[in-house]
Amino acid sequence: MIDSDLIISKAEELIRRASPEGRAAARRRRERRKQRAVRMMRRVFFVTLAILVGAVVWGLISPIGGTGVMAVALGIILAWVGVLLFTAEPDARVEDLPQVPLKALPSRTETWLESQRPALPAPANRLIDQIGVRLEGLAPCIQQLDEREPAAMEVRRLVGEELPELVRGYQRVPQQLRRQGPDAQLVEGLRVVESELGRMTQELAAGNLDRLATQGKYLELKYKGAEE
Hints:
Layout: H1 4-18, H2 20-61, H3 65-87, H4 105-115, H5 122-138, H6 150-172, H7 182-205, H8 209-214, H9 224-227
Helix pairs in contact: 1-5, 2-3, 2-5, 4-5, 4-6, 5-7, 6-7
């Protein structure tokens, strides 16, 4: 028997990927992978060079022999393994977002949101792409923002606290109850977040830090009623 919901979900996913936001999200993922690969290759080069220079110096002082050659080779292999482990992107955990430096918060929040896609309804995925675009635009605007400023606190509240709590609140609702309202609430909440991120970016770009701090909107969608 054909599952009509699955067919609709697949169709919506194809449409999402073909959208400008979906293509932008795919581009950001490629850029992040490329940046990690470049960092990894650079570190591999320098640690290998350092070990080989050390081996040359060792050889000038005294013959290293077969044992020394094996030690150098083992050291290079271990260094490569260490670089691979060190360069790997850590798992994005929602518990870590409040402690992430403000400059890196948009990127880390987007990475966490991407990891939540399988647990969210199809209509939310398009909004996640749009939020990703907003977060990309917000990132340059907060690079020089002092963490102690009220405007920075407003950004952190929305990006690092309220947005994750919106998604987690939805996920706490039992699966069989989600179509009775929480799906629509989640979509509406994500739409509010997307709009707020756009407003924040405009205020920051215009230098209206006081206005951003005093006119911030706060999400009230915590799904307490749905959870009950």
